[in-house]
Amino acid sequence: MKPVSHFKVNATEKAVLVGVAPRGTDAAVAEEHLDELEFLAHTAGAGTEKRFLQKLEYPDPKTYVGSGKLSEITSYCKASNITLVIFDDELSPSQIRNLEKAFKIKVLDRTNLILDIFARRARTAQAKTQVELAQYQYLMPRLTRMWTHLEKQQGGIGMRGPGEKEIETDRRVIRNKINKLKEDLRKIDRQNFQQRKSRGNIVRVALVGYTNVGKSTLMTRLSRSEVFAENKLFATLDTTVRKVVIRDIPFLLSDTVGFIRKLPHHLVESFKSTLDELRESDIILHVIDVSLDNFEDHIKVVNQTLVDIGAADKPTMHVFNKVDLMRDGPDAMHAADFRKSWMAGSDTPAVFISAATGEHMDELKEKLFEMVRRDHMRRYPHYLGQG
Ligand SMILES: Nc1nc2c(ncn2[C@@H]2O[C@H](COP(=O)(O)OP(=O)(O)OP(=O)(O)O)[C@@H](O)[C@H]2O)c(=O)[nH]1
Ligand SMILES: [Mg+2]
Fold first, then answer.
1. Does the C-beta of 229 come closer than 6 Å to ligand 1?
2. What residue spans define the domains of the chain?
3. Ligand 2 mean position to 126 CA, how many Å?
4. What is the pLDDT of residues 70-105, one digit of tens each?
5. What pLDDT score was predicted for residue 304?
6. Backbone angles phi, psi at 316, to 5 degrees
7. 5-120: what fold?
8. What's the CATH fold of domain 201-379?
């Protein structure tokens, strides 16, 4: 049994997006959140036709949006042959049920969309196992719905809905599957732990940041070897580690999965071993796409995620990337001002670079060298490096 086949996004899918924003939310911010949801939908392969945004303090517990909005969306979907409705939050099992009843087409929530992208992106056994675990954990409380779906698809003899017995059997199958995946992950963990131990006492630097900010592009530039980069969300899921030498000091540089707001908690849990690399690193290079209007929100999301996974409070450098996109016009002025005020207002070292063009890479290397050297000297007090 494959976990999310019912939720998969097809290339021909015509989708609408639905979000709620508490009253008082800046309209531009609310739109940015839907922009991101649209980018996720495109990454998963769906075309998006329209977005619906409702101002609500909290999503409605029964139907996410209010009844007026619900009928507006229903009529639009019918009139425009929409096949999929995507919501910007994780929906409860009963919300999904109610919404599907109202729309009579497929409903997908943010978590499911992200899981779908992760499932496509996973390459190594570790990433595949981690995604599959998160998928089954998401599926477990939504099992009733899956059965109803299956019946509909198979013509639904009797159309009575599933018997409790069948759901129980299915729950048991999934519970066993979850245990098996956890056991597989423990094995992979042990191997990784041994591998990390055998690397010796070398300084470890981790690239972290919001998804699509340019971590892999920077990794390629620093390590002079190709690392997969793409203008899609979550291009990287697996951790890549490369040995880099600046002047005469070697260190290990790792590139790993990017963060996003409302990262599904099942994913964070099941990606524990991937995130070990971050937890165990000595220095963090926090990469930021400074060309985005909302990059300061992204910084907050990343910092909070680092706290959540227990990887905060490490020596950190802010790497403001993609400055090449801000070179002209008012943007350039803004960039210069911003740079000045940021440097004055923050204790964290910062550089402004373009990983794509290589601008200011020397400055980055210089500052990184100093950070690595400090750590290296602590480990090897008698080491006589230059610098
Ligand atoms: N203009 C410009 N584009 C860049 C720069 N750095 C990266 N990009 C582009 O931004 C996109 C994302 O780059 P990646 O290196 O894949 O980003 P990432 O942070 O590894 O993304 P995920 O692995 O998906 O989280 C790609 O299309 C890159 O070519 C830059 O300095 N300037
Ligand atoms: Mg990447």
1. yes
2. 5-120, 122-198, 201-379
3. 17
4. 999 999 999 999 999 999 999 999 999 999 999 999
5. 95
6. -130, 145
7. Rossmann fold (3.40.50)
8. Rossmann fold (3.40.50)
